[in-house]
Structure formats: C-alpha cells, structure tokens
Amino acid sequence: FTVPLDDPSGLVETHFEGTPARVFVEGGLLYVTFRDRNSVALLAADGSTVIASRDVCRTPEGLGRDGDDLIVACRDGRLLSVDPESLGERRSVFLDTDLRDVVVRVGKPLVVTRFGTAELLIVDAEGGLIERLRPPPESGRESRVGWRTIALPDGTLAVLHQSNRLSLEAGIQGYSSVPPSSRVVSILNPE
To answer: How far is it, in rounded angstroms, from Cα 1 to Cα 100?
Structure first.
C-alpha cells in the first residue's frame, strides 16, 4: 500500500501485506489497522520498517490516540486500549458490533462510530457508553452506512453517511428505495 506523507507530491510504498483500514500518524510513526490480518502495525514514517505488529481482534477498523493509549475499534464490537509501543492490550470493552471510526476530541468524551447504521457511540474514559446518536433524518430519508467521521477544529463532528428513503416502493421486479440512496455530510455536536 502507499502512505501519503507531509509532502503531498510524494508517496512511499511499503511491502507489508494486508488490507489497511485506517492510518494514524504520530511523531514520525504510522499506526495501521489491517482488516484481513486482524492486526495493528507500527511502522516507521517512511513505511520501510515494521517496528511492531500484533494480532488485536477480528477485523480492526478505526484507531486514535487518547492520552497514553492507542484506541482500536473492532468490527466484532470490542473497543481496545493498546500500549502504543508494544501494541499489547491494556483493556477491552464490548460496545456494540460493527464498530468503525475512533474520534478523539480534546477535553470531550471519545466517539466511536458504527458502519451500517451511521450511529455515534459517545464513550467515557473507562469505556462505558454515555449516549447513542444518529444523524437526523432529512426529507424523508434515514441515516445509514457511516463511511467516515472526523472531528472539526471546533470539536463538532462531520459524518459522511448514506441517506436512504424511509419507505420502500413495490415494483415489477421487487421492492426498491426510489430515488436511490445519496451521500450526505451531517454536522453533529455531542457533548
């Protein structure tokens, strides 16, 4: 895979096999989740050296740094706190299945997203669930499939998700949602 560095004109190719889900960059290091290898790897910033790699869970997805921990969201529903140097597990809590992104906001609770529902799980420092949120329905459309969620500079969240009609229409060849789903960016401000 290739990793964009600070210089957008340059890409570095690594030969670490696997399908990367997310990359987190910190202090000249790359933390990468690999879905098909069930692992997290720590790479040198140029991508040429694997410093550490460890199996963490079935289908790791998102990751982010929260204090002294690397936080890893797993599709099987576990939220892991991992040592950023050894990649050893410090804590594991079950939130819900289909976890996707980890969003760390300074001075605010952690946010973990769910892929199929575009749901946001607000999590306290011990990994306990505080609240569940979803982007609001718009024009008769329901939020589905949360592709990506990021924190904006002011702490609000930008959620890229699909929006599907709330009702189905019967047709000659079966049921369908007309018009088809569309991608929407919703801005949310959970506390």
So the answer is: 20
